[in-house]
Amino acid sequence: MSDPITRITTEAAPSPAGHYSQATAWNGLVFASGQLGVRPDGTHSFDASFEEQARQAIENVLAVLRAAGCGPEGILRVTAYIVGADKWPEFNQIYASMFDGVKPARTVVPVPELHHGYLVEIDAIGVRGAS
């Protein structure tokens, strides 16, 4: 019999604004919901620069994964949605600096727009206890 699904919540990342969990965990896997550049206290930063939004979104994903017992080395896959393919090189540089040598599988999807006018959204899948 498999483990029950666990709902993950942390105050280190913004509370969900809809009907979803910050993350769910099952059988050692952690599935982090898409994170925008919303600050952990719930205030919006949609008027911030692309870099500031990207850094906040990555920090939010990492905080949710940490709350589930998954550090950066346990991240298996990341999907990033960015407004405009021209932002790809900048995103790649920010991402590499924040992941500090950890290289999960990754997909970057250029999109025309995101909720509230944000410029980046990131989700991830990780595994608990990896080191």
From TrEMBL:
Name this polypeptide is given: Reactive intermediate/imine deaminase
Species: Novosphingobium chloroacetimidivorans
Any one GO CC term of the record: cytosol
Family per record: Belongs to the RutC family.
A Pfam family annotated for this UniProt entry: Ribonuc_L-PSP
GO molecular function, one term: deaminase activity
